[in-house]
TrEMBL record:
Keyword annotations of the record: Chromatin regulator, Nucleus, Transcription, Transcription regulation
Ranges where the Chromo domain occurs: 22-83
Keyword Transcription part of the UniProt annotation: yes
Annotated Basic and acidic residues bias: 103-113
Subcellular location: Nucleus
Name this polypeptide is given: Chromatin modification-related protein EAF3
Disordered as annotated region, ranges: 83-123
UniProt source species: Tremella mesenterica
Compositional bias (Low complexity): 91-102
Length: 280
């Protein structure tokens, strides 16, 4: 399609919405999607972007509405969002009156400047918190690492795609693991909370897979096949079509994905233990 439909261009630096904030990013690819080739269910200009300073696992396709020009207006919007997020994250403080004497005005001015500096610092801290959250360590066994390499070569070098639908599919594989844990002493070896969370975690992984597949887990040569499956099965989740190969790709990327959720530390450790156990 005509490239001039796009407001942004390849290799352009932009500001991209990610959660409540704007981050600097570079456009790696620019495409126009229609109903026959969309990956995200949306049509029009879309861009594959890399967030500056972030790992490649965060590279993603975004619609044009998620981007702003990297100019004075965009930077002003970025500062505004940072200020709003800072106010949400920090408790309100009582206001104090400013003396009207000359010396009082001077002190008030100093306090005002100090307050501005603290606000700027807090905005930087807020963005830094988003960027520096620790990743969840997922241990990939050596055998599965080799499988990932073979999978990558088959798709990207030999144009060999897996036949779909897979049997067993992702949903079946995860449910089989859940039943295995509950039927063996593995459930007895875990804490009551871990056992109680098992079904919820399995459902969460399945949901993550359905959300992440089209955006983060496909190689370029697999996109047409994905579009065909979405068109042929509009009401069926992709976790009932794709199988172990793509589930493994999710687990490889799961560390940075899950680090950006609000899950509590105990549940996070339980989730990590289950994922590591699945891959044994």
């Amino acid at each position: 399609m005509a490239q001039n439909m796009n407001q942004f261009t390849t290799d352009e630096y932009v500001l991209a919405y990610h959660g409540p904030l704007l981050y600097e990013a570079r456009i790696l690819l620019a495409e126009n999607w229609n109903e026959s080739n969309t990956l995200l269910g949306t049509v029009g200009p879309h861009y594959f972007i890399h967030y500056k300073g972030w790992k490649q696992t965060w590279d993603e396709w975004v619609p044009e509405q998620r981007l702003l020009k990297l100019n004075d207006a965009g930077l002003a919007k970025r500062r505004q969002l940072l200020e709003q997020q800072t106010k949400k994250n920090r408790p309100a403080t009582a206001s104090t009156s400013t003396p009207t004497t000359g010396k009082g005005k001077e002190k008030g001015s100093v306090k005002k400047e100090t307050g501005k500096k603290r606000a700027r610092d807090s905005m930087v801290d807020t963005e830094a918190d988003y960027l520096k959250r620790p990743e969840v360590k997922i241990v990939i066994p050596d055998l599965l690492k080799l499988q990932l390499v073979d999978d990558w070569e088959n798709v990207t070098k030999h144009n060999q795609l897996v036949s779909l639908p897979r049997q067993p599919n992702v949903r079946e594989l995860l449910d089989e693991y859940r039943q295995y844990v509950l039927a063996t002493k593995k459930s007895q070896d875990r804490s009551p909370r871990a056992t109680a969370l098992l079904s919820e975690i399995i459902s969460g992984i399945t949901l993550y897979f359905d959300k992440a597949l089209g955006n983060n887990l496909l190689y370029r040569f697999e996109r047409a096949q994905y579009v065909e499956q979405k068109r042929a099965n509009p009401d069926k989740p992709m976790s009932e079509i794709y199988g172990a190969e793509h589930l493994l790709r999710l687990f490889v990327n799961f560390g940075p994905f899950i680090a950006y959720t609000n899950i509590d530390p105990e549940s996070l450790n339980i989730l990590r233990e289950y994922i590591n156990d699945i891959m044994k």
